Amino acid sequence: MAATDKALAGLRQMIASGELGPGAKFPPEPELCDHLGVSRSSLREAVRSLGALGVIESRHGSGTYVSALDPAAIIGRFSLSVELIPLEGVLELLEVRRVLEAHATAAAAARQDPELAARLGAVLDQLESTTDATEIQHLDAEFHGLICAAGGNPTVTALTDVIRGRGGHYRIFEPGADFDAIKQTSDRGHRAILAAITTRDPAAAATAASAHIAQTELWLRALRPDPQPALP
Amino acid sequence: MAATDKALAGLRQMIASGELGPGAKFPPEPELCDHLGVSRSSLREAVRSLGALGVIESRHGSGTYVSALDPAAIIGRFSLSVELIPLEGVLELLEVRRVLEAHATAAAAARQDPELAARLGAVLDQLESTTDATEIQHLDAEFHGLICAAGGNPTVTALTDVIRGRGGHYRIFEPGADFDAIKQTSDRGHRAILAAITTRDPAAAATAASAHIAQTELWLRALRPDPQPALP
DNA sequence: TGACCAGAAGTGGTCTGAGGACTTACGCTT
DNA sequence: AAGCGTAAGTCCTCAGACCACTTCTGGTCA
After folding, report:
1. Residue B47, CB, less than 7 Å from strand D?
2. Does this model's pTM top 0.85?
3. Using the beta-carbon criterion (under 8 Å), do A93 and B71 form an inter-chain contact?
4. Where does the signal peptide begin and end (chains A, B) (predicted)?
5. Cβ of residue A97 closer than 8 Å to a chain B Cβ
6. Tens digits of residue pLDDT in A134-159
7. How many angstroms separate the CA of A63 from the C1' of C28?
8. Exposure string over B41-71, b if 16+ CB within 10 A, otherwise e
C-alpha cells in the first residue's frame, strides 16, 4: 500500500475505532509519522485529504483535531467540488434539490410558526422591490434557506444550500428581453410557497416548492451552451 | 494567503475558468509550482485536497488530470467522510435517503420495464432464503440500487448508495431475539415495493419505499448507544 | 513488414532536513 | 488580581535528492 494511503487509512481508523471522537486532538506530526510508519510529507498529504473532506481540522500552532463530524458541515464541503460541476450535472443535482426542498417546505408548513411567515414575507417584500441580480440571488437564498431550516433537518438544509449555490453561478436574472417575465414568474412562485406555509398546507407547500424549482430547471436548460461559472 | 490555499485556489480557477475541462491534463508539477508561486510540497497538498474531493486525479508516472467532474462520482467520494459520521448524524442522513429513494422508486414504477421487476424478484428470492447478515446487506443494497438506477438520476443513486453504505455499518441483522421479526418485516417491505413497481403504481411505490426506510430508521434508533462502525 | 522488447525520457511518489509562523501556557511584573 | 512578555509546542513552507511508474522511441527478430 502506498505511503499516503497507509497514512490515510491509519488516520481514518483512529477515528472510526472510537480512539478519537469529535473534537479530539491528534498526536503531534512527528509522533504520528512514527506511529503510522510514513514520512512527514506523506502524513501531511493524508491530513490534507481528510481536511478537504471536513473530517480533520489543522490549526496552525495548535494541533490537528477531529472535526465535529457534523453531517451538515461535511456536506458543506461539497461546495468545493460541486461548484466545478458542468451544467449537465447541475441539472441532475437540481432534481435532488427539488425533491428535498419540497419535502422540507412541506415540513415547514406543517409547523405552526407565525414568526416564520412574517420573516418570509419581509424577505419577499425586499425581493420584489429590487432588480439587482446579486441582491436577487442573495434574497432568494435567504428565503429558501429559512424555509429549509424550519423543516428541521440541518442535513437537508446543507444539501439544498450547496446545490442552490452552484445554480446561482448561472445568472438567470441578467438584464435582457426576458428579465421582467422571469422575475414576475419567480416572484409569483415565492408567494405561492409563502401562502401554503401561512395556511399550513403541507401538500400545497410541497407542490409549490417543487413547481418553483422545476421552473428554475427549465430556465437553466435554456442557458446552454454551458457558460463559465464564476468562483467566489 | 497561505501557500497551500493559494495553490488550491489556482488549481480550482484553472478548472472553473474552462482552461482545463474534464479529463484535461495539468502541466508537470515543477511547471505548476512556478506558475502558482509555491513549493512542490504545498502544490502536492493542494492536489491531494482536490483529489480527495474527486475533482483531480493523479496517475503515477503519467500526470495529473481533471476528473470527469461527474456528479455521481463526486458524491461517491463522500463515502470517505460519511462513513465516519456518528449515529446521531446518520439518522439525519436517513431522512434524506428516505425522501430521495421514495422519489426514485416512484420514478422506477412509472417506467414500463418488465425486466426490472423480474430482476428484483430474483434478488428478493435470494434475500428471503438467507439469514447471513453480510449477504442480507449485500442483496438489500442490490435491490435498492437497481430501483434507484431505474429511477433515471445517477446523482440520486449515488447519494442513496453513500447513505445506505453508512447505515450498513450498523448491524441490524445480528442473530438475536428479534432477528426473525425484523427479517420478516424487512422482507414484507421489499415485497410491497416490488408489488407497486410491478403494478406500475408510482404513488404506492413512493409510500412503500418511504415506509420501508422509516422502519430502518426506527431500528437504528433502537441501537443507541452508538456502536463502533466497521471500516471496510 | 509486423510484432515485440529494451532502453530512455517524462512524471508523480516518498523521504530527509531545515527554518519560519502561529498558538498556547507559564511565570513574572505591576 | 490583572496584564504582559517569554518560552515551549505545533503546524507551515521550502529545498533537494532519490525512487517508482508510465509512456514513447528505436531497434531487433520472426
Report:
1. no
2. yes
3. yes
4. none
5. no
6. 899 999 999 999 999 999 999 999 99
7. 27
8. bbbbbbbbbbbbbbbbbeeeeeebbbbebbb
